Amino acid sequence: LYLGSSVDGESDSFAYPLSDDNNEQIDDEDGISFATQMVEAQTAVVIVNASGAGFMNAWVDVGQDGVFDASDQIMTDIGVQAGKQAVYVDVPFGVKQGETWARFRLSSSAGLEPNGGAADGEVEDYQVKIIEEDSMVNYYPSSTGWTTVAFEDNWPYEGDYDMNDLVAYLRTATHRKTVGVTRVDIAGEIAAVGAAYHNGFAIRLPGVKRSQVDSDNVELAINGKTIDSWMPLEAGRDEAILLVTYNLWDYVNSGELCLFYRTEPGCGGKVQMSFKATIPMLEPVDADLKGAYDPFLFATPGAWHGGHFVEAPGRGYEIHLKNHAPTEAFDMGLFGAQGDDASSPADQRFFQTKSGLPWALEVGTRWAYPIEYHDVGHAYHLFQSYAESSGASNAYWYNPEHTSPELIFSH
Questions:
Q1: What is the DSSP letter of 314?
Q2: In degrees to the nearest 10, what's the CA dihedral of 24, 27, 33, 34?
Q3: Cα–Cα 20 to 30 A to 114, which of 131, 153, 164, 197?
Q4: pLDDT for 99
Q5: How many whole angstroms separate alpha carbon 286 and alpha carbon 206?
C-alpha cells in the first residue's frame, strides 16, 4: 500500500533541504499533487493517488515551527480507494503565509500520528506554500520544477568556456494582488562550482527599489539555517538585490582527490548548499517581475580574480545573463578594457562576444552541465548556433540527443 507509482525505503525522515528525495536520483514523492493553491481561509483541492484502499492522514506545519501538532492536521482518517481522487482541505484563517511543509500518510490503519511506525503504507513529505486571501502566485518554472543558471567566470575572456564555474538551480514565486507585487520567494540549490576563483552569488529584482522592500522582514536561510551574519538585502543600494553569499566556497567543498565541486568525473555526491529567501514589500509594487529575475555572479571582495586585474575587482565585477545590464555596483570601466567581451552599454548589449556567445545562460530545466575543462559547445553540439542566433534556431539544443554524453557531468 503506497502513494504514487513507487516507494523507497528511508531509515528516517527529514524536511527540505535534507530530504533524500531532493538530493538523490530516486524521488518517490509522487502520490500527492495540488489542483489549487493553498489560500488562507479557502478550500484547497488535493489529488491523492493511492495504490489501494486505505486511510489518509495529513498535516501542514502552518505555524512554520518545524513540528507537527494536533492543530496542524488537515486530513483525519479520510477513506481513499485505488487510483486518483480529489480530497478537499480547509485552510484556516489567520495562518502564517509563506513556504512550509506537509506530510501525507496512507495506511490500512486509522488514527495514525505524523511520526511512528505502522504495519503498512507510505509517508510522503512536500514543500507547500500558503498564500493570503485575494492573492495570486506565479511560479517559475513551476511550483516543483527548477530552472538552471550557469556561468563562465573568466569574463571578459572566454576561458575554457565549460559553463560550470557556477551552476545554480532556481525556482521563484511572485505573489501579486491587483495593485502589484506583495512578496517574492526564491529557492535554490548550488549544483556546481568549477571555479578556482572565489565568487559570490546574488539576485536582483528588476524594477524594485530597495526602499520598497520591507527590509526588516527579509529572510534568507542556507541549508535550513537563517542567515544573520550579513544583511541579505544589499545595503547602500537603490536597487533591491538579494545577496545569497559573498563566497560560494564557504558552503561547498570539492571532496577528497577533487579540485572542484561536482564538475569532475567521480566527484559527485549530494548537493551541499541550498537556500530559500522571502522578500516582502512594504506596499504592493508595480513591477514586471518574472522568470528567474536577474541572477548574477560577482567576485568575492578582496579575492584574487586573475592576472589580468591589477587588484582584486571585488563587488564591482559582475557576470549577468546575456543582455542583462549590470547593477549599480558594477565598475563600468571594465567594459571594453580588454578580452573577448563585445558589450556596448550605449546599444544595451551586455556580456556577450562579437559572435553573440554569453558568459551566463539559463536553461528552463534541471540542466546537465559539461564536465571540467570541456567547452559547452563541444558537449552540446547545437549550442553555438543557438547562442549566435540569439535563440532563433535550435531552441532545444540542450536535449540529450544533441550531446556528447562523455562530456556531461554525471552525478
A1: G
A2: 0
A3: 131
A4: 82
A5: 11
41: left (phi over 0), alpha (psi -120 to 50) or beta: left
C-alpha cell at 316: 564591482
What amino acid occupies position 350?
Answer: F
The Cα 178–Cα 116 span in angstroms is 45
N-terminal to C-terminal alpha carbon distance within the chain: 31
3-class state of residue 380 by DSSP: strand
Q: Which of 392, 372, 395 is nearest to 382 (CA)?
A: 395
DSSP-derived 3-state class of residue 211: helix
Exposed, middle or buried by CB within 10 Å (0-12, 13-18, 19+), for 67? exposed
pTM over 0.90: no
Residue 10: the pLDDT is: 59
Answer whether 165's CB lies under 8 Å from 194's CB.
yes
Instruction: Give the separation between CA 183 and CA 12, rounded to whole angstroms.
Output: 34
pLDDT mean by block of 10 residues, the chain; 411 residues? 79 52 56 85 90 95 86 94 93 80 94 92 89 82 92 96 98 91 96 97 98 96 94 97 98 93 93 96 95 98 94 97 98 92 96 96 96 97 95 94 95 75
- Cβ atoms within 10 Å of 153's Cβ, excluding its own: 25
